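Each lists chain and fold; for instance:
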Amino acid sequence: MSPTVKAFFDDATNTISYVVQDANGPKCAIIDSVLDFDHASGRTDTVAADKIIAYVREKVLEVQWILESHVHADHLSAAPYLQEELGGKIGIGDRITVVQETFGKVFNEGTRFQRDGSQFDALFKDGDSIHIGQMRCDVLHTPGHTPACLTYVIEDTAFVGDTLFMPDFGTARADFPGGSAETLFNSIQKILALPDETRIFVGHDYKAPGRDEFAWETTVGEQKAGNVHIGAGKTKEEFVAARTKRDGELKMPKLIIPSLQVNMRAGHMPEPEDDGKSYIKMPINGL
C-alpha cells in the first residue's frame, strides 16, 4: 500500500510540508508544517498553513496526526494552529527533552518552561508505530542533525526531515548543540537499510548547482548510489571529515532564534509577560 502524498513548498524557508493520506480512506497526517514569520517586524501569519487547511477541507480529510520530524531551527511550526482548525495529535521524538534542556539553558528559561515534552500530545521512541487510517507508520530515531530527529516510515515512504536532502545536495548539518556528524552517519545507515524502492521525502530543498527546479522526492536506491555526501560507499571517516569542514563554513539559519524558542514548545509562543504579550529572547553570544 502506498499513501497519497501532497507536498507544500514554502518559498520563504525552502521547507516542504506534507499531507500524507491513507490511500483507502480519509485519514491523514500533516508533517513539518510552517508558520509564516517576519523577522524584522516579529509578526506571524498563517498563509502557508492555510494552504494545507484548504487542501484538507477540499479533500474532506480527517487529520489524525500533526507530526514533527524534529525541533526545526529554520522555521516556526504551525502545529497548534492546525490542531485548532483541523484536530489531530501533535507528535515528536521523545528526545525532545534533551533539546528542551539544552535550549532552556541557552535562553535562560524559567521554571514555567517544562522540559518534559508535555507540550506535545505524543512522544515517540525508536521502534514505535502508529496508524494513519489503515496505514502503519514506523518511527526511526535518526539523530545527528539534532538529538530528537525522527524518520517516519509510512508503508513504502520515508519522511526524513532534515537528515537527508536530495542526492545532489547531500545531508543535514551536524553542528548545532547536541548534533554529531558521526551520529548522523550512523542514522543515515538506518534509512539506507530500507528497501531501495522506498520513496524518500525530504524536509528542505535549495536547488543544487546546475538544477533548475526544486525537488523533494527521491528513493533509497538513488541516495545510496548518488548522494554527494554519503553515497557511493563513502566511509564514516570520509563523511565526518567532509561534513565537519562544510559545517564550519555555514552561517546560522536566519530564523534560528525564534524557531527554537517556539518549536521546543510544540509551536506555542513563549508565555505572555505582564503586558499580555509574548517575547522572543536574543541571547548575546549564546549560540
User: Anything to note?
Assistant: The chain has a mean pLDDT of 96.
